[in-house]
Amino acid sequence: MKELFRILRESDKLGYKLSAICGVNWLIRQAFKWQFLVFEMIACAVLIKEISAILEISSDYLVSLMVLFILASPFLKLRFGVERFIFYFMRNFVLLWIFSKALDFPFQENESELWILMFLFSIGIYQFMEWFQAKLFQRYLFKNILNKDYLGIRKLKDKLPPKINLFTDADEGDANQRMMTINQRAVKKDYQDIVELSFLNYKRFTGLSHYRVTWKGFEAPFKSPLKKRFSDVDEMYHLVFRVYPFGKRINLYFKLIRLDLSRRKAFTVEGVKVRLVNE
């Protein structure tokens, strides 16, 4: 217990602050997500009752299909690991309970349209808050924690990334030196003891490009045949940043953010449009 209090006393207070911000951000996101899921279950129950009444059939068939869908959908998450499967199975079990309660609830005849409208309204709220909250959280991260210019995150009208940037440092052959260098430059100085780039993966897009032979600095006439060659079109970098609330010396962390960055977008200027082969 004394060791725990010593760690808490000696830890950087920025770690607590960032953890609290991430926690509040997660709670708000979950709250809006659950309001959408609850209204979804209620709307499904209302629709099943309405369809059964219109078609003059028993609702047991539709209810069975809905229950089967709710219980089976978590199995699609098995490819992401057992922990993800257990989480979604428990979540869907709660949704199934809400759905059963909604089926037993005696809705009035004129309430069906109201619940459907409320469900559609909840979709709009959820989608807007998902977008707005992500933008707000990223704005905070790039202003206080991460080096946006170094990472090459920019709009078309913004200036190009500096000469020393993520994409040049990612070419470093030694993996340990590469990650140490990127961490030193991607994370702002005050947060380097509590925020770490833990994973960096990338994939390369290669495809055919067509061109004409140049002659004295000019493109050859159109009647000359097109030539083709393979070239690298883009590289996508997948970065995962972690937060260590008590500092990196203690192996306790949670994911801060995942970024998917494109080398092409980082160095594309306004008026120049490049298309990926698989777009």
Description:
The protein is α+β, with helices and mostly antiparallel strands and 279 residues long. The chain has 2 domains: 2-144; 148-266, no CATH class. 52% of the residues lie in helices and 17% in strands. The strands form 2 sheets. It has a 3-stranded antiparallel β-sheet with strand order 1-4-5. A hairpin with a 2-residue loop joins β2 (214-215) and β3 (218-219). It is extended and about 70 Å long. Mean pLDDT is 80; it is low at 270-279.
Largest sheet features: 3 strands, antiparallel
The fraction of residues assigned to DSSP E strands is: 15-25%
User: Fraction of residues in helices?
Assistant: 40-55%
Give, in spatial order, the strands making up the sheet with the most strands.
1-4-5
Number of helices: 9
Unreliable residue stretches: 270-279
Distance between the termini: 56 Å
